[in-house]
Structures are given as C-alpha cells and as structure tokens.
Amino acid sequence: MSAPAPGSFAVGDRLEARTGPVAHGGHVVARLRPPATAVEPAETRDVVVFVRHALPDERVVVEITEVDKTFLRGDAVEVLEASPDRVDAPCPLAHPGGCGGCDFQHVAVPAQRRLKAQ
After folding, report:
1. Which of 4, 74, 79, 86 is most buried per CB count within 10 Å?
2. The pTM is what?
C-alpha cells in the first residue's frame, strides 16, 4: 500500500479537521484525507497535520503552512467547536501570523499544565 500524498495539499489550502492529541512544540495532531482529483480517487489513508493555535478535540479550519514529504503543518485559523479549556490569549500576537512565541496562551492554565506534562 502506498503512503498518502501530502503533495495533494498546497500551502494556503484551508480544510476542516478534528484535532487529536498534543504534539511537540505547541502543536496538536490532526489527520486530513487527501482530496480526489480528476486523475486519482481520494486516498484511503489520512495525512498527519501538526496544527498550531488549536487544542485537542476541537473542530477547526486548518490553513496549511508547510508541506513536507510525510506530513503537513498548519494553523487553526477558525475554531468551529472550541475546547472548554480554550481562553482568550493575553498576548495580542498569539495568533496565526503572530510572533510565534506564545504557544498555549489560548489554553487555561490548569489545562496548559496537563498538556505540557503529556
């Protein structure tokens, strides 16, 4: 069985996803199904995307920011279903396109501790 094709996605694509567990560096893991094309049917295996500005178990719109050979990176640019642990970030630059130094400011402090321990 061939690996899914992250190349089916491009920087700037926006797709809806349900986020999964926390990952390294302020990201959470989500999985996206590559789209069908006129030439090839949709892949049956999902592609991993590491999403910033999201929390586990949220439904978000992910904007792809990087396409690697085996995975994607993206930003949660819209939260469709928020985690109960989501709060307003105190830093005005803690958002997609911001400075990038504000991981987990959008998370309530007790939940930050849990996520960092994981």
Report:
1. 74
2. 0.82
